[in-house]
Amino acid sequence: MESIMSHRASILSFTLATTSLPSKMSILQQPTTRTPLLNFCPNLQNQTRAFTTKDIPSLLFHHNPSNSSSFKVYSSLNLFSSDQSNMILQDVGATGLVMVGAYSLVLVFDNLTKNQVIQQNLSRKLVHVLSGLLFLSCWPIFSNSAEARYFAAVVPFVNCARLILNGLSLTTDAGLVKSVTREGNPRELLKGPLCYVLILILSAVAYWRDSPVGIMSLAMMCGGDGVADIIGRRYGKQKLPYNQQKSWAGSISMFTFGFLISIGMLKYFTALGYFELDWSSTMGRVALVSLVATIVESLPTTEVLDDNLSVPLSTMLVAVLMFG
Ligand SMILES: C/C(=C\COP(=O)(O)O)CCC[C@H](C)CCC[C@H](C)CCCC(C)C
Ligand SMILES: Nc1ccn([C@@H]2O[C@H](COP(=O)(O)OP(=O)(O)O)[C@@H](O)[C@H]2O)c(=O)n1
């Protein structure tokens, strides 16, 4: 507790150059006590960045972690100098790269399904698992500007439009329909897949890499729920007493992989220096979040609320309570 209090004291000692905001709303560029793996701008440490009006959207629309009791935020890393045009160039390049990755992923699994290398159901689930986790893994290639999260959100936004256009049969992308739907009905794109990309947008814009909340939501939705389906379909003989559509094997997989992938992703982002966690309590907190998400996913509510909404939203709720 004492170390956290001293951390918070150092955080709050950070001064804002202009508008005086409530102390808990400070923008943080903390000298990292841990040397991140990729320390592109060592001279950033111990620097005070002027607060500008550009920071207000990121203060108003995303969780401000500075008053968190369990983690603190450091300056995110920037590949180039703090020159605005370099940051925009970096974000445009990163957006293009991730966009190509998204199209390539769907194309690869479409071909694997076409050539009967894997079944359509497995293809869809692997796209479900990999899309969000690879998207999340790409967040560090964006700049440290306040707009970076919006550049990143362009990719799921474009895919959202793609799903809507194809789901309404206004355009025809047979590869997308084949690799992302259960029975090959384009209308299916407007259900699980659309919810999925909406959550990617929400996680990027509302939480970004400043907080464990969005990271855990995607880990549970993509890693946990995706693997639960793969394992549950194959080995789920023992059904849950309150839901004959779900099994113990599926739910145990959801908890296990959701927990492990959450921890892995949190280690990844803390190793890069985006924020630090009090690991003595983090494992327990993540386990609790994973348990709640697993219980929510096991409930017979899919007809009412898609798993791609109930799982990440319940994760966000509990993670905000756990991590402040
Ligand atoms: C199959 C998907 C959801 C269906 O879920 P469920 O019904 O089985 O529960 C995922 C749909 C993925 C979407 C079409 C493509 C999203 C791409 C993503 C925004 C960016 C990925 C970038 C990365 C570098 C590959
Ligand atoms: N907890 C779970 C989740 C899924 N599953 C299996 O995976 C199948 C698909 O699960 P789901 O309805 O959650 O699929 P999506 O909505 O995630 O596409 C189920 O019909 C079960 O066979 C399971 O056995 N146990």
Automatic annotation (TrEMBL):
Q: Give its E.C. classification number.
A: 2.7.1.182
**Annotated localization:** Plastid, Chloroplast membrane
Give the pathway annotation: Cofactor biosynthesis; tocopherol biosynthesis
GO MF, one example = phytol kinase activity
Q: Name one GO biological process term.
A: vitamin E biosynthetic process
Q: What is the recorded membrane topology of this protein?
A: Multi-pass membrane protein
- GO cellular component labels: chloroplast membrane
Q: Which UniProt keywords apply?
A: Chloroplast, Kinase, Membrane, Plastid, Transferase, Transit peptide, Transmembrane, Transmembrane helix
Kindly state which reaction or reactions the protein catalyses: phytol + CTP = phytyl phosphate + CDP + H(+)
Which residue spans traverse the membrane?
Answer: 92-113, 125-142, 148-168, 189-208, 214-231, 252-275
Question: What family does the Swiss-Prot or TrEMBL record give for this protein?
Answer: Belongs to the polyprenol kinase family.
User: Mind telling me what this protein is named?
Assistant: phytol kinase
The organism is: Papaver atlanticum
